[in-house]
Amino acid sequence: MKADPKGVMAGAFFIDGDHACAEGAIAAGCRFVAGYPITPSTEVVERIAERFPLIGGMFIQMEDEIASSIAIQGAVWGGKKAMTVTSGPGFSLMMEHIGLAAMTETPCVFVDVQRGGPSTGLPTLPGQGDMMQARWGSHGDYGIIALCPNSPQESFDLTIKAFNLAEQYRIPVLLMLDECVGHMTERVVVPPAEEIEITPRRYWEGPKEGFLLFKAAPDRVPPMVKAGDGFNVHVTGLTHDERGYPVMTAPAQEKLVRRLVDKIRLNSEAIIEYREDQTAGADIVIVSYGITSRVAIPAIEQARREGAKVGHLRLITAWPFPAKRIRELSGHVSCFVVPEINYGQMVREVERCVAGRTRVERVSHGGGSVHNPKDIYAKIMSCGKEERR
Amino acid sequence: MTEESMDIDMSMPTNTVEEFLRMERMPHIWCPGCGIGTTVNCFAHALETSGLDLKKVSIVSGIGCTGRVAGYLKLDSFHTTHGRALPFATGLKLANPDLKVVVYSGDGDLTAIGGNHFIHAARRNVDMTVILINNFIYGMTGGQVAPTTPIGATASTTPYGNFEEPFNLPYLAESCGAVYVARWTAYHVRHATKAIKDALRKRGFSFVEILAPCPTLYSRRNRLGDGLDQMKFYRDNSEVKNDADTKTVGLSFQGKVIVGKFVDKDKPTYLDSMNAFYAQKFGDKYSPYKG
Hints:
The complex is a heterodimer of chains A (389) and B (291).
Chain A: E1 11-16, H1 17-28, E2 30-35, H2 42-51, E3 58-61, H3 65-77, E4 81-86, H4 88-104, E5 108-116, E6 122-126, H5 131-136, E7 145-147, H6 152-169, E8 172-178, H7 179-183, E9 185-190, E10 234-236, H8 250-265, H9 268-271, E11 274-277, E12 284-288, H10 291-305, E13 310-315, E14 317-319, H11 323-329, E15 335-340, H12 346-354, E16 359-364, H13 373-388
Parallel strand pairs in A: 2-3, 2-4, 4-5, 5-8, 7-8, 12-13, 12-15, 15-16
Antiparallel strand pairs in A: 1-9, 5-6, 7-14, 11-13
Chain B: H1 3-6, H2 36-50, E1 57-61, H3 69-72, E2 76-79, H4 85-95, E3 100-106, H5 107-113, H6 115-124, E4 128-134, E5 137-138, E6 144-145, H7 169-176, E7 180-185, H8 189-201, E8 205-211, H9 215-219, H10 227-237, E9 238-240, E10 257-264, H11 270-282
Helix pairs in contact in B: 2-8, 5-6, 6-7
C-alpha cells in the first residue's frame, strides 16, 4: 500500500539524519513514539513531538528508556505503528524489551544513534560500538534485523524500510545510526506519498473461530490482531504454544525459538541489502557501514589512483549479515579491510565468513571522531604490499 | 426454598465466573490458601456486573504470582516483563483510548522494580485501573523481602527480620495523583468486588490494593498459620475506615489493617488534558486525539 499523505511532508529539505529519521517514521505510518531524552538521538523525538499533534500521532516522553521500549509494544497491540529512539546507555536499558518484542513477535522499530561507549562514554561524539549488542543484546536466541544508514537521505529511506520489515516479519527492527549520520545535515528528498511503498500490518482476515495468534504462515510469520477486536489473545514473554499459552517444556521451546531464529535466517536473502563498488576483480575489499563507509571513500580512491584494485562493500543490513556474499568474494579477494568505530565487531563476521581463506584486517578506532582516511589508506596499501610479496 | 433456586439445574453445576476465565488453562498455578485466586473471583464478578463490553477490556500483568492473572482471564491479556506492566498499559491505552485497560500485578512487581512507572502513571493520570495484590513478599521466587514487607517480618533474604521501612501504598498512590484509592483484603470479597467495580467505572488512574495471604512463603515462615488463619486475622484485625487519611493507613507486622475507600475524586485524564491543551493551542487545526 501507499503512504498516508497526511503525514508525508513531500519536498526537498536540508535536514539532519535525526530529523530525516523522524520524517521517515511519519511517512511509514508511525503514529506512536515513546522516548526519553538522550544525546545524540533527541532531535528525532523533538521533531516527532512537534509534528505529531497535527497529524493525529501520539508522542509521550516516558520516565526512562525501559518504559519507552515497552510503551511502544503496548501501542502496537493497540493498533499503532510505533517506534522508540535512543543512544547507547538507553539502548542498554532497552535490551530486555527487544527480547520481549522478539518473543511476542511485536512489530516495532528501535532507533539507536550510536555514540562512544562503554557506559556514559562520549555523549556528543560518534561511535559504532553497539553493533554486536544489536545482534546479541537481549538474553536468549532470536533473529533480528538491523539497518545502517550512512546519510540523512538514507536515514529517511531506511526508517521506512525498518517499519516495513518489522511488519513483514513481525519483529523488532533496529535502525543503527551513528552520531555523525544523526547530526549531519544534507539534502533529503521526501517523495510524495503515492511514491512511498508501505507494508501494512499482517492482520488476520479469516474467521475468529480457531484463530491462533502464533500459528505461522509458510514464511514462518504468524498473523497479527489487535486488542479490542474480540480475539481474547494472550501475549506472553514466556515460551508459548500457538495459542500464546505458556508451555514450560523443551519441545515447546524448540518449536517456538527455532522459528524465531529461522524466520530471519531462512528469509535472509530477501532481507539482506548491501552496496558494492568495483568488487568484481578486486584484490582488496573494504567492508564498512554508516559514517565509516563515507570516510573510507577518499582512502579507496587514493589507493585506486596508485593502482590498487580496491572494491567496497557497504552494509545496509548489518543483521542479517551478508555471509554468502562475503564467502563468494573471499574466493578471489586477497584481503578484506574492515574499518569501524570500535575495536572490532562486524569484522568478526567477516572473519567468520572468510574462515581463514584470506586475510582480514581491521582498522579500529575507539570513537570520539571518525577515522582519518589516511589510516584506512595505509591499511589498504600494506595489504597490497603483502600481496605483491 | 424459593421458586428461583428451584430452577437451578443441578445436573450442570456452573460457576458464573467461568465465562470470564480460560477454563482450558485450569488448574492454575497458585498454592492452596493463596489469596490471589480469591481476588480474581472478585474481579470476574466485578466484570460481570460492570456492564463493560468485554471485547474492549484488556488486562496487563507483570511477572510474579499475581503476574499470572492475565493468562487466566478470557480477555485480551498481556503478560509483560517484570515491573513493566504499567508502561505497556500506558502505550496500549494511549494507542486505543476505547479500551478499558486493567493492570493486575503484585506488590514487588508494581512498586519495587516497577515503582518508577507506578509513580509516573499515577502522575499522568492515564485512564486505567490498577489492581495490586499485596502478599508482603516475592512469592514466585521463594519469599524474598519486598518494599511492602512489614518491619519485623522475616523473608528468605531477611532471615533475621526486615528492618526497612515498607511503602504505605494508598498514601503513595494518592500523593502521586491517583483519583481512586481503596484497600481491602482477600477476606473482604464483597467490598473488594465493589471497589474493583467502582475503580473500573472511574476515569483516570484508579488503584485498588488487596492484601492476600501467601501461606507457603509468608505465613509459614512467620509462623502465622495457614491461609485460613490469615483470613481470620484479616477478619479480626481489619477496621473499615472510608475516607481515612492515607498517611495513617501504613501497615505494621500483624497490626491493625485499615481498609476502605480512601480517595475518590475527579480530575482530567492524560488524554483529556492533552486534547484540551492542544485544542486551545492550535484551535481548529487540531482534531482531538481519539487513537
